[in-house]
Amino acid sequence: MARPPAYVAPGQIRERIIVAALQLFTQRGYFNTSVPDMARTAQVSVGSIYHHFKDKEDVARALYLSLTEGMQAELSRIATAHATAGERCRAVIAMLFELTESSREAMDFMLYAKHREFLPGERPVCSSQPFETMRDFVQQGMDRGEIRRMDVMVASASVFGGALRLITARLDGVLAEPLPDKLDLVWECAWRSVAA
Amino acid sequence: MARPPAYVAPGQIRERIIVAALQLFTQRGYFNTSVPDMARTAQVSVGSIYHHFKDKEDVARALYLSLTEGMQAELSRIATAHATAGERCRAVIAMLFELTESSREAMDFMLYAKHREFLPGERPVCSSQPFETMRDFVQQGMDRGEIRRMDVMVASASVFGGALRLITARLDGVLAEPLPDKLDLVWECAWRSVAA
DNA sequence: GTCTATATCATGATAGAC
DNA sequence: GTCTATCATGATATAGAC
């Protein structure tokens, strides 16, 4: 079903560095990760990192962009595979749940990291393209009469808020069971909250 | 209505430091804030900071604890002022919305900051006492028959997820209007999602 | 209790060999 | 393109005067 975004082509040094960065940034945080740490984890030298990237921030930006692009690709796939807003939004939640289980670190870094603290100039997650697309799905649902007419920000928060909250709980270790087990229930609640 | 938690008694040096820390931590982040920065903002010397606190981390911990204690006090107040789960949960959201408007930085630091990165040993927000209390409200609602019987984590995420999502949007500057304007609508959606 | 001045250390980033 | 060795910066934390 939802494949993890193809953010890495394994083997290449550049990609090894990005994978190592993802691992370290999510485990210890950006500021607790030194460039020598990244070099050790990626099994490359410090010099290589500075050859492929301008600086440490540049690694984080490349990582962030590749993750949000992968997410955006998943959303486009969903848009073509489903026609109604209900099906689309449900598919989004299913995809997010599966991605959280299969690429825990990617989700953690994408949704959770305080990018503004180390990526000045990058838009906050909330206004990133994937989140805008999700709001579009909801807006179209209102236009089609599937979803009650209301403020689109509130409707979008209601549809996806519960699922995102549960993802947070899962990433924090507060939720023991795999997220896909909860999909049907989460979706029922989410849809009830806004369905026409 | 919901007063900001009394996390500071203005005038005292110790409190001046905490207020300055809150301001700087939310504006630039913990790791982008140096102790001299804090000293300058608080109008005290570096030595004073190290006299009152063990180290920079200790300042962050004191800040975090005072904020969660203030929040917990608000929740206790709500528990005594309201009897039904519906009233309690609605009051919680109203309180969170007002607190976000009146003490933006406090909410940002409490809900948003990646505490694990600079406060090792502290539990994640999700499993902090306030969030547990909120889940208790929901559980009691199920016991009383107000809320459909279901997984309490899912029910709690559904009730509060939309509101928390909207708070995030507001803090990120994506939502222009004050949160209390949206309270009625948010609550209607939240309650529909789980009401018996 | 509060201050200034400073020791110590770790980090990001670079230079230059291979 | 990749590596090792090194530098310069800026941070934390402390010492010691007042």
Brief digest:
Two copies of one chain form a homodimer. Chain A is mainly alpha-helical.
Describe this protein's structure.
2 copies of one chain form a homodimer. In chain A, 67% of the residues lie in helices and 0% in strands. The first copy, chain A, has 2 domains: 1-53, Arc Repressor Mutant, subunit A (Orthogonal Bundle), CATH 1.10.10; 66-194, Tetracycline Repressor, domain 2, CATH 1.10.357. Residues 1-8 of chain A have low confidence and may be disordered. The first copy, chain A, has helices spanning 13-28, 35-42, 46-52, 56-81, 85-102, 104-112, 129-143, 152-171, 183-194. In chain A, helix 4 (56-81) runs parallel beside helix 7 (129-143). The structure holds a DNA duplex (18 and 18 nucleotides).
Predict the CATH topology of the largest domain in chain A. Answer: Tetracycline Repressor, domain 2
Count of helix runs of chain A? 9
**Rg estimate of chain A, integer Å:** 18 Å
Average pLDDT of chain A works out at 94
- Tell the overall outline of chain A: elongated
Strand content of chain A: under 5%
Instruction: Look at the structure and name the CATH superfamily of the largest domain in chain A.
Output: Tetracycline Repressor, domain 2
Instruction: Give the oligomer, counting copies of the same chain as homo and different chains as hetero.
Output: homodimer
**Helix and strand sequence of chain A:** HHHHHHHHH
Give the N-to-C terminal Cα separation of chain A. Answer: 29 Å
- The computed structural class of chain A is mainly alpha
Report the CATH C-level class of the largest domain in chain A.
Mainly Alpha
Quick one: biggest sheet of chain A?
none
Count interface residues per chain for the largest interface: A-B, 44 and 44 residues
What is the count of β-strands of chain A? 0
Low-confidence stretches of chain A: 1-8
CATH-defined architecture of the largest domain in chain A? Orthogonal Bundle
How helix-rich are the residues of chain A, as a percent range?
A: 55-70%
